Amino acid sequence: MAPLAPRSGDAVFANVERVNAELFTLTYGAIVRQLLTDLEEVEEVNKQLDQMGYNIGIRLIDEFLAKSNVSRCVDFKETADVIAKVGLKMFLGVTASVTNWDVDGTSCSLVLEDNPLVDFVELPDTCQGLYYCNILSGVIRGALEMVSMKTEVTWVRDMLRGDDAYELRLKLLKQVPEEYPYKDDE
Amino acid sequence: MVGREVSESCVDSMIIEMVSSYCDRFYSAKPELAARRIEAIGYQVGLQLSERYTMERPRFSDHLEAIKFICKDFWSELFKKQIDNLKTNHRGTFVLQDNRFRWLTRMSIDPSETNGNTSDDPSVATTESKSAQSASMHLYFPCGIIRGALTNLGIPCAVSADMSNLPACELVNILQMI
């Protein structure tokens, strides 16, 4: 029997180097603010935040695999669980609950219990349409793509937009078969 | 009370990605514009952080007191260590030296660069200056933070960094009071 994947990222989070979250939160806020000034269009800011997240995700997955001790997930349900309980915990120190599964088990919601990205944040009226936390959905999409899962990650509820929670919708589009960079006869 | 924490790699990857977005995507043809934007982001962060870290302190009596606060308390909050060395010419210039600046310790730069490289190969020279240039892009953010923090303490200044001793990860900040 395969070793059970850890169901909680507490131990990993306790062991990684940690820093004051204020620096993280304020830096992210300053980046979003500067992007709004430079790119002008809110839509474009959403897109760039997602792209930045994606670029981070494709690198962060290595650290996750190296430190979390998580082995291969048997299905997407387990993957979602690991993101919610181990991945988010290990990097952001928070967890999420996984809910609203569809019948074929390919899409679900992650409801964040806490969100360090948005401490001190209030959106002015001029920023309607901004998905402030779009970097996070990008990170998850990028990380999953590196472990052969093409996904679509979108925000369905956002407290900065007046909702009662932070809810991410995760949809598995395609499981990409692993390709090896070498041929048998080489 | 220990405040909220996140993993260090979150902050690191966010800053690295921000710098590379500005240098390679938004302003790839205009490094000086990219540098100004990155500095502006740092400035905003420094302004807000020093506001928070000085909330319960009495007003600083002079510039030196404020600089000492940056070297000790402010730096410790951010990097869990103090500035290693503070020098001043007593005419408004301060040099803050961090011998192991956390944001640069994992950056690899060709060590031959600082060892008096005598190679004539132009391609080698280009690679070196590129790696040095991209490393220097990462210094605009901390420079901005310090300028923002001091500005918030009522000390408008210019901050620049010198990393000519990079293998030892030295960060030298030269503050020129205006």
Structural features, described:
The complex is a heterodimer of chains A (186) and B (178). Chain A is α+β, with helices and mostly antiparallel strands and 186 residues long. Chain A has one domain: 2-Layer Sandwich (Muramoyl-pentapeptide Carboxypeptidase, domain 2), CATH 3.30.1380. In chain A, 44% of the residues lie in helices and 17% in strands. Chain A is built from 5 helices and 5 strands; from the N terminus they run αβαααββαββ. In chain A, strands 2-3-5-4 form a 4-stranded antiparallel sheet. In chain A, strand 4 (149-157) and strand 5 (166-175) form a beta hairpin. In chain A, helix 3 (42-68) packs across helix 5. The longest helix of chain A has 27 residues, at 42-68. Chain B is α+β, with helices and mostly antiparallel strands and 178 residues long. Chain B contains 5 helices and 5 strands; from the N terminus they run βαααββααββ. In chain B, strands 2-3-5-4 form a 4-stranded antiparallel sheet, with helices on one face. In chain B, a hairpin with an 8-residue loop joins strand 4 (157-162) and strand 5 (171-177). In chain B, helix 1 runs antiparallel to helix 2 (31-53) and helix 2 (31-53) packs across helix 5 (140-152). Mean pLDDT of chain B is 82; it is low at 113-125. The chains are: A alpha+beta (186), B alpha+beta (178).
